[in-house]
Design goal:
Chain A: Keywords: Repeat, WD repeat. The complex is a heterodimer of chains A (448) and B (884). With 448 residues, chain A is of the alpha+beta class. Helix content of chain A is 25%, strand content 34%. Chain A is elongated. Chain B is an all-alpha fold and 884 residues long. Among the domains of chain B are: 60-180, Leucine-rich Repeat Variant; 628-775, no CATH class; 780-884, no CATH class. In chain B, a hairpin with a 2-residue loop joins β1 (556-559) and β2 (562-565). In chain B, α28 packs parallel to α30 (662-678) and α32 (703-716) runs parallel beside α34. Chain B is elongated. The chains are: A alpha+beta (448), B mainly alpha (884).
């Protein structure tokens, strides 16, 4: 337990954001006035909290709020063009992506608040968004039942997008109803994606092959999933209040009580499970339920270790934050921001409503360094190629390389023996000198 | 004889020395005295059975008494007839003793394969039959590797045999082999194709006989259809099935079919294609000159075209842009080689083919011939369309093909002839599949013409036909282009007449009924996709909205009180689920559709699973704002009030006959309660629902439904109660009746085994009422008063002429009231509550006492006794209450 972890939870009713230490159970500040939609709560790079807000159906614009860690009040308010449902930021906290109710995905730069890109991703409202582990892909699920994988390189590269036949990497449309949650495993481009839907199924997709690997039918609608770090199982929180454990790596037993691939469930007679999260080591499972409780389960013995009471109303977001990053990043302030001085804390300016074409030059100047992650992805491709080249070379020229090494060794030997010779020479010379002087001295003495 | 005698007498007279030996010619020396008799005499010995045969008693023999071993030896006999007989004998043996085949499979094949290149036609034929009917079917599930390799060496040998007959037969054998072991083709593809090429090119002379050519080509078609492009989908579905069972991250051992290198095949096919085309060209003079073309030539031509089609398809697939599907090729071939050969093919080789198109003889034709030509034309068009995608073509050529496509789609369909129509449809299906791709490429004028033609096909084909299925998939592809990565312009979409297409779907659903689940599934899938992608403010959305007026008939229609269920109720579960999913995507679900859904839901035949799915989907639809709150509430209220619960048969003998649906109803109630309470603040929801619920309760409903409503009330209510006084008054009128119904319906029995169960069921019904009492003491008091009036008041209020009949009724009613009270008293929490209602209880006891002691009522002694004992029990129970 070197790094303390925090659990933050929010609900659709105006109950604020609760914050607890996962391991000690101590309650921290409660951040006020937050009514988030499902998947609408995120911690931006460990520096501050951000949440999209549920809006009246009539209101045309959405709302995203920021809280800094040490103040319960809302610090920054921004009003995007339409209501934003899911909100996610990448690990470093440089971008925020939001999914709109009309199916648009918005991508903002956190430091300047600029809307970098907005594109029509789905036919209906986006319900969940997440980045993959190397932050190069954005995965979105939607009410129209499709899960799409977007490459950020493609999103920003107009030329590439023009050439490609579709703007996304993959579109999985086997779900027949709204996608409720999506998680991704480790392994970059070879990862698996697990998606849950209101059609009572969870589907496992392969990111490398772009196809369906497994379809698991549950006894109730699954609203939340959490993937075990070892990818042996995943946890699926159902509307019937049970957390099902579904196998990824075991051979299915057809005469199972619960259904194919379902190993069992955790249950505490609660109302529907709405959100799940795992601690970083995978030993604790945190579930949020409609009855306003956050339960912490031990994944090994399936017991509840802790219960946090958040609110009367339902909870719909639970996020685990590593506190170390939070502490270390607390000091990093982008001092050029005007808002910083106004609020006295280090929060970036509000997000822009629409992409501003007047700032085109400025925009380019800002985005420059942001291409970095993209390049690193490319570099990894190159490294694979060069690696295979090297292997080839090694196979082909194995003998010459060995000969070279041999020569090198021989050269070394030679130089060493040269040194030795020199040493001997000097020794001989000094001895000779000594003898001569001795002799002469003796003679002198004799003479004397 | 006489003379002889005289002579012998004379000789005896003479002396021995002068004996004159006279010999007569023709006489024989008498045998010497000591001569051995060398004569051999023999007699035929007839045995009942031969000794060798008796040794074979336990062995498997043919009709002629030969064992498998002997028969196998005879297969290499120099006499052709013997060889043939041996093969037939083997067939006998193996048919009679299938175990024999399992044991000696490889040995048998090892011996038999030598006969593949037998000189005698009849022997080869017999071998073919033997392999086809007995040996291959028997070996199907075994390891195929050794059989293949055993056979293939000899088949290749035979393919290069001097005699053309043998060669042709070898192709036939290979054909047979891949029928049973399709996976082996790719291993030998290169060599086989080489052989085909040889025989088609260099030995044309032998192939003058159309029958032979036909056979060879049929084999070629089969081989080519095993190339990766055509069987890709099957393979995918298979591997998908496997994947559902195993573990995800496991190491995959089975790489054999993926590791084959196709580069050699590509080269071979490049050589083969011109040969095929030139073969086809040989037939063209035939078409133009002859008045009547025989069937075999037609078959040959169609096989040739099919082979060309398959080769082209393979190339297109291989060089196609979906390269990650095609990992079999070495990377070098992927980019350069294939695309180059693809280009060269389209440009030069097939030019000759295009020149022939369309095949239309100028003389008058019979119907059948017309159909055949039509078929050939269709295949050529297919080849053309395969190639046309992504490559530049001369406009004139394109024009010619487009004209053909349009005319074949639109005109010929309604030519009237039934048989011809069916025939046409079969071939048109393959053409229809190209339409989405085609309209991507052609000019706007052609686009609308072809779409028009397509519309006529779509509308005119019968709902059950496979043509309809094909059309549906085309519509899906055009409407939702992202699945196949083609982007139709929104403008193009406007050209398509949405109203007809989308409006057609629900009608089609009703027409299809429940007899064609496959079609229904396709229609529903399309409907779902359209719904998912319908943008809320575009025309498709409106059309989708309009759809629900027709789709009602699919679920259920009510007219004048009679309910007639649509095909939905009888379809398989997965299709039902799919259709339920479609409901979510209606932008607005109207009352009438909800009504018909509700009547589906309360039908007994509906599976509970589907019932819950419908409820879930409607709940989600409500949350997404697709259902008005009033409709939503009334749907659930209808469900609660109309759902018929069969009582559980407590009698163990009848238990198996009727499975009670009380459990289902209980879950329905639970779900309805939780969802209705989610509508908003409980206080407001309660205010909204209070009146409706009370109205429903006051109608005389079965206990289960009333139970459901009470559950709903207590979910929304809180402690202390928020129910208005009026509500409580009305409840106090209704609830006593409910109690009595509960007690009467679930009668107490003496049987020990069922006692617990009865107790449990009664508690189940009473528990929600206890909650109500807990929240409002007034209600409890009022109810006790009403009960007291049951005991006391009824007798006086009775009309005189009813007295006799109702007296019995009255007494039993009193007994029920008592048992209700006992139940209430039995609950610990209620005991505390009852303390505050002492007066009411006392009143009840008093009125019972007066009743029992009064003399004026006609009451039998038995009844009186029962009331007496009930009174005693009740008094005892009440007294314990007081002491606590």
């Amino acid at each position: 337990m070197t790094e303390p972890e925090l659990v933050i939870a929010s609900s659709p009713t105006d109950a604020g954001i609760g914050c607890w230490d996962l391991h000690t159970g101590a309650e921290h500040l409660r951040y006020r006035t937050c009514s988030s939609p499902s998947h609408g709560l995120t911690c931006v790079g460990g520096r501050f909290l951000a949440s999209s807000q549920l809006r009246e159906t009539k209101s045309s614009s959405g709302s995203i709020l920021y809280w800094s860690w040490n103040k319960p009040q809302v610090e920054v308010k921004s009003f995007p063009a339409e209501p934003i449902n899911p909100l996610v930021s990448n690990n470093e906290g440089t971008y925020i992506a939001g999914g709109g109710a009309s199916g648009e995905i918005y991508l903002w730069q956190v430091a300047t608040g600029k809307l970098l890109k907005k594109w029509h991703a789905h036919y209906r409202a986006v319900t969940c968004l997440l980045f993959n582990d190397d932050q190069s892909l954005l995965i979105s699920g939607s009410e129209d039942g499709s899960v799409r994988v977007w490459s950020l390189i493609m999103v920003f590269d107009d030329l590439l997008r023009g050439k490609a036949r579709q703007p996304y990497e993959f579109s999985f449309s086997e779900h027949s109803l709204k996608v409720t949650d999506v998680v991704i495993g480790y392994g970059g481009a070879n990862a698996i994606i697990v998606s849950a839907s209101e059609d009572r199924t969870c589907k496992v997709w392969s990111l490398s092959r772009g196809k369906l690997l497994r379809n698991i039918v549950f006894p109730s609608i699954i609203d939340a999933i959490a993937l075990d770090p070892g990818e042996d199982v995943f946890y699926a929180g159902g509307r019937d209040g049970k957390i099902y454990i579904a196998a990824l790596n075991a051979v299915a037993d057809p005469n199972n009580n619960y259904g194919l691939h379902i190993l069992g469930f955790l249950s505490e007679q609660s109302k529907a499970i709405t959100c799940l999260a795992l601690s970083t080591d995978g030993s604790l499972l945190i579930s949020g339920s409609e009855d306003g409780m956050v339960r912490v389960w031990n994944t090994k013995n399936h017991n509840i270790t802790r219960i946090f009471r958040h609110a009367k109303g339902p909870i719909n977001n639970v996020v685990v934050v590593r506190q170390s990053s939070l502490m270390s990043n607390r000091g990093t302030v982008n001092s050029q921001m005007p808002s910083v001085k106004r609020h006295g804390v280090s929060l970036p300016p509000p997000l822009e409503k629409c992409a501003n074409s007047a700032d085109e030059n400025d925009y380019k100047a800002v985005i420059g360094p942001r291409i970095d992650p993209d390049r690193s992805v490319e570099a990894s491709y190159i490294s694979i190629q060069s690696l295979s080249n090297q292997i080839l070379e090694l196979q082909r020229q194995g003998s010459s390389a060995a000969a070279e090494m041999e020569i090198e060794r021989l050269k070394l030997d030679r130089s060493r023996s040269m040194q030795m010779i020199q040493q001997w020479e000097t020794k001989f010379q000094s001895l000779h000198q000594f003898c001569v002087t001795e002799l002469l001295d003796g003679e002198k003495a004799g003479n004397a | 004889m006489v003379k002889n005698k005289a002579q012998s007498k004379k000789q005896q007279k003479r002396g021995v020395d002068f004996k004159k030996i006279r010999r007569k010619i023709g006489r024989k020396l008498p045998p010497a005295q000591n001569a051995t008799n060398t004569e051999i005499k023999s007699k035929a010995i007839i045995l009942p059975e031969q000794s060798i045969a008796s040794e074979k008693a336990g062995l498997a023999v043919s009709k002629k008494g030969l064992t498998l071993k002997e028969l196998l030896q005879q297969t290499s006999h120099h006499n052709a007839k013997v060889r043939k007989d041996a093969l037939i004998g083997i067939r006998d043996v193996l048919l009679k003793f299938p175990a024999e085949l399992k044991l000696h499979k490889l040995a048998v094949i090892e011996k038999l394969r030598e006969r593949i290149s037998d000189d005698d036609k009849l022997v080869r034929e017999a071998l073919y039959q033997l392999l086809k009917s007995v040996i291959f079917p028997g070996c199907k599930e075994d390891n195929k590797g050794p059989i293949n390799s055993l056979m293939m060496t000899y088949i290749f040998n035979a393919m290069t045999h001097m005699a053309i007959e043998v060669r042709l037969m070898a192709f036939k054998f290979f054909d047979l082999l891949i029928q049973y072991f399709p996976s082996c083709f790719l291993l030998y593809a290169e060599k086989i194709l080489q052989n085909y090429e040889d025989i088609l090119q260099k030995n044309k002379f032998y192939l003058q006989d159309k029958g032979r050519l036909k056979n060879a080509l049929a084999g070629l078609v089969r081989c080519l259809s095993l190339l990766p492009c055509s069987n890709q989908e099957e393979g995918d579905s298979l591997s998908y099935n496997d994947a559902t069972r195993g573990s995800l991250h496991a190491f995959d051992l089975d790489l054999s079919d993926k590791s084959t290198d196709l580069s050699g095949v590509v080269n071979r096919l490049t050589d083969l294609l011109p040969v095929l085309v030139s073969c086809f060209q040989d037939f063209s003079p035939l078409i133009h000159s002859m008045a009547h073309v025989d069937v075999q030539s037609f078959d040959c031509m169609s096989f040739l075209l099919q082979s060309i089609d398959l080769v082209v398809r393979f190339f297109v697939h291989a060089s196609g842009n979906n390269q990650h599907d095609f990992q079999n090729l070495a990377p070098a071939y992927k980019k350069n080689n294939l695309s180059i050969c693809d280009q060269s093919i389209s440009a030069v080789t097939l030019k000759k083919l295009w020149d022939e198109f369309p095949l239309s003889p100028n003389h008058c034709l019979s119907e059948k011939d017309g159909d055949r030509y039509f078929m050939l034309n269709i295949v050529i068009t297919e080849i053309f369309l395969h190639l046309s995608y992504g490559s530049k073509l001369s406009p004139a050529l394109l024009e010619r093909f487009l004209e053909f496509i349009e005319s074949s789609l639109s005109e010929k369909i309604h030519n009237g002839r039934e048989a011809g129509k069916v025939h046409h449809e079969k071939h048109l299906i393959s053409l229809v599949a190209f339409i989405p791709k085609l309209i991507m490429q052609v000019s706007a004028a052609w686009k609308s013409r072809i779409l028009q033609a397509f519309m006529t096909v779509f509308e005119n084909c019968s709902p059950e036909s496979s043509m309809k299925l094909a059309c549906l998939s085309v519509v899906e592809e055009m409407l939702l282009p992202e699945q196949n990565c083609l982007y139709l312009d929104p403008k193009d979409l406007e050209i398509l007449n949405h109203s007809t297409w989308i409006g057609e779907l629900p009608k089609l659903l009703v027409l299809l009924g429940d007899k064609h689940p496959l079609h229904v599934k396709a229609v529903l899938r399309l409907q779902l996709r359209v719904g998912q992608t319908a943008n809320l403010n575009m025309t498709p959305a409106k059309e989708y909205d309009n759809m629900q007026y027709f789709i009602r008939a699919f679920y259920c229609t009510c007219s004048n009180g009679t309910v007639s269920y649509g095909p939905f109720m009888r379809l398989p579960r997965d299709i039902q689920e799919l259709s339920v999913c479609c409901l979510y995507y209606f932008p607005f679900l109207d009352k009438v559709l909800l009504q018909s859904l509700a009547s589906c839901c309360i039908c007994h035949e509906l599976e509970p699973f589907i019932l819950f799915r419908i409820m879930e989907v409607l709940h989600s639809a409500y949350k997404a704002g697709h259902i008005q709150i009033a409709d939503y509430i009334s749907f659930f209220i209808t469900l609660l009030s109309r759902f018929q619960v069969y009582p559980e048969k407590i009698d163990p003998t009848e238990k198996h006959e009727v499975k009670s649906n009380r459990g289902t109803f209980k879950s329905v109630v639970r779900a309805v309660c939780s969802w209705l309470s989610q509508i908003g603040d409980d206080v407001l929801v309660l205010q909204m629902l209070e009146k409706i619920v009370l109205d429903e309760i006051s109608h005389k409903r079965p206990v289960d439904n009333i139970y459901g409503f009470i559950r709903l009330l207590i979910t929304l209510d809180s402690k202390p109660t928020r129910l208005s006084e009026q509500t409580i008054n009305r409840l106090s009128e209704v609830l006593p009746e409910y109690f009595l119904d509960v007690v009467n319906n679930i009668a107490e029995e003496d049987d020990e085994s069922t006692k617990f169960l009865i107790r449990q069921t009664r508690d189940y019904y009473l528990l929600p009422c206890f909650f109500l009492f807990d929240r409002s003491n007034m209600l409890l008091n009022q109810i006790l008063e009403v009960m007291e009036s049951f005991i006391r008041g009824n007798a006086s209020s009775l009309l005189p002429h009813q007295k006799g009949a109702l007296a019995k009724d009255h007494s039993s009613r009193i007994l029920s009231v008592v048992s209700v009270l006992l139940l209430v008293l039995g609950d610990i929490k209620m005991q505390k509550l009852l303390l505050s209602c002492k007066t009411a209880i006392r009143n009840i006891l008093e009125s019972m006492h007066t009743l029992e002691s009064s003399e004026d009522i006609t009451m039998t002694i038995e009844e009186r006794h029962k009331i007496r004992s009930a009174y005693d029990i009740l008094t005892a129970a009440v007294s314990t209450l007081k002491y606590d």
